[in-house]
Amino acid sequence: MSPPIVSSPQEPAAPPGVPWTYPPAYLRILGVQMAFGLSYSAFLLLPKYLRLELGASASDIGAVSGAAVVAAAVLAPFVGLSARWVNRRTLVGFALLLAGAAGATFTLAPAIGPLVYALRIAQGVAWIIVFQCTATMVADLVPKARLSQAIGFLGVSMLATNALAPAVVEPVAEHYGWTLAFAVPGVLSIVALLLVPGLPDGASAEALPPSSIPRARPAVLPIHYGSFLMGAGIGVMFTFTQPYALALGATRVGDFFFGYVAMAMFVRLGLSNFADRVGPAKVATGAMVLYAVVVSAAAWLEPGLLLFLGLGLGACHGLMYPALMATGMADLRPEERPPFMGWTSLAFNAGSAITVLFLGPVADHFGYPVIFWTVGALIATGILPLAITRGVLAVRRPVKEPAFERMG
């Protein structure tokens, strides 16, 4: 998923008549994002590793996978607050070290136990720090007219690693073992520390007072619920599709991630203004319908259909996230948007955590199709609230941003 958009009250701008270009610090942020993304995305194949190497059950896979998401969900509201006391460069450097150490040492655990859970928690902490800090850094560098484009590129830089890392890690693991497959991406995360000194300095100007934790605004609760359902969908698909496919006789599962990323990137880049033309609330509602269908369809999975299932998930998620965010923020004042994004991030991670933690035992006792049907039905419950929200939040048309040229 793409990092949240956080507006900066002091927006950089180019002198009149001088075309604005992305500064070197922005390219450093992209480099950090991609290096960290490769380290984190290597563990998209964690369910396969746990099943084949440690003999994990579906319950074990859900619990281990969910540990990172729980850590991210708990920490999400506090990352912005921590920037009041700790420089964001220091936070990002700490996150890169955590990710690198976790990747390099993960296979040292001989069985599922405290070390495995501790390393997954470390990965979750690292992910939410990088996820939020890089977005606020971009907001400090980029003028408002370019912010949407810049955040889009930032999201794509992470999204690309969701396909690249599994595509490389899976064959490396087959030929050289999982230790090398997980350790090399981890080392890349540590190497990215060389880019940290050139990242933007200072704490976020949008940080809240220490005594204030942002509250969810009732009018956008259906949007937060939609984000919760997206997290549930991603959680069940990323965590349980792999062991289900392996149980059906599959030997490679990377095609699923390739299909997901390829379609999501096509939607994000090729159809970037689709929601603006049709209406973000309408697109979000339609994408929610598609989400429910795709997740339910995973119950009829066959090994040869992994690529197509990934394509379907990429289509609905690629449409859903930006449309849902635009629907929620259209009628919010600027100062309400950072709290909105914080609660949206919390809801997404909570949905994913609950799904992967509690549905593993269900899969063990009743089979994998049941959990896909269950989550598909759960996602369908968000369709009506979103449809109603279209009338509640779309009373005023969102102000269109000025047109801008693409980078390069």
Number of domains: 2
Helical amount? over 70%
Mean pLDDT metric: 77
Taking pLDDT < 50 over at least 5 consecutive residues as the criterion, the unreliable ranges are 1-19, 203-216, 392-408
Q: Please tell me the CATH architecture of the largest domain by its name.
A: Up-down Bundle
For the largest beta-sheet, the strand count, sense and barrel status come to: none
User: Total number of helical segments?
Assistant: 15
Give the C-level CATH assignment of the largest domain: Mainly Alpha
Which overall shape is indicated by the principal axes computed on the Cα atoms? globular
Q: In sequence order, what are the helices and strands, one letter per element?
A: HHHHHHHHHHHHHHH
Rg from Cα = 20 Å
User: What fold name goes in the CATH topology slot of the largest domain?
Assistant: Growth Hormone, Chain: A
Q: CATH homologous superfamily of the largest domain?
A: MFS general substrate transporter like domains
Explained architecture:
The protein folds into two domains: 27-203, MFS general substrate transporter like domains (Growth Hormone, Chain: A, Up-down Bundle); 216-399, Up-down Bundle (Growth Hormone, Chain: A). Helix content is 71%, strand content 0%. It has helices spanning 24-41, 46-53, 58-82, 88-105, 114-141, 144-176, 178-191, 221-247, 254-270, 274-278, 280-297, 306-329, 337-366, 368-380, 383-393. The longest helix is centred in the middle third of the chain and has 33 residues, at 144-176. The protein starts with 23 loop residues before the first helix and ends in a 15-residue tail after the last helix. The relative contact order is 0.16. The model is unreliable at 1-19, 203-216 and 392-408 (pLDDT under 50).
